[in-house]
Amino acid sequence: MDVLLWLATTPTPSGTPGVDPEDVTPGFIGFVAIAVLAVAVVFLLIDMLRRIRRAGYRADVNEQLDAEEKAGAEARDAERATDVDGQDIDPAR
Fold first, then answer.
1. SS3 readout for the chain
2. Which of 13, 30, 14 is nearest to 22 (CA)?
3. Domain boundaries, the chain
4. First to last CA, the chain
5. pTM to 2 decimals?
6. What is the pLDDT of residues 34-82, one digit of tens each?
7. CA-based R_g, the chain, Å
8. Cβ-contact 47, 54 below 8 angstroms
9. Integer CA distances (angstroms), 1 to 4, 7, 8, 9, 10, in order
10. Where is the chain membrane-spanning (predicted)?
11. Which string of b and e fits 30-58 if b means at least 16 CB within 10 Å?
12. Which residues have a Cβ under 8 Å from the Cβ of 82 and sit 6 or more positions away?
């Protein structure tokens, strides 16, 4: 019960009597600054997402090209492994 009495009698802080509330607000200039920052962040996010997506597409294309190059090299190796008569050369024989 003493705690409630103590809380009830504790003075609450009041504002400084000499400060005008308009002097401590950001005003129009602060609003414009935050709006410009928000627009810049949105454009940066859009650009970043576009670059990440483009990098992913490039990685996919590079994987396809590597797979095609590997398949072509395997086909050339198989073609070279035949002798003049068209028979397969088997090194195990």
1. CHHHHHHHHCCCCCCCCCCCHHHHCCHHHHHHHHHHHHHHHHHHHHHHHHHHHHHHHHHHHHHHHHHHHHHHHHHHHHHHCECCCCCECCCCC
2. 30
3. 44-77
4. 102
5. 0.49
6. 999 999 999 999 999 999 999 999 999 999 999 999 998 888 887 777 6
7. 38
8. no
9. 5, 10, 11, 13, 14
10. 28-49
11. eeeeeeeeeeeeeeeeeeeeeeeeeeeee
12. 88, 89
What six digits make up the tokens of 43? Answer: 């454009």
**Structure-block tokens of residue 54:** 């483009």
**Looking up tokens 């454009």, which residue turns up?**
43
What the block records as the tokens of 46 is 């859009």
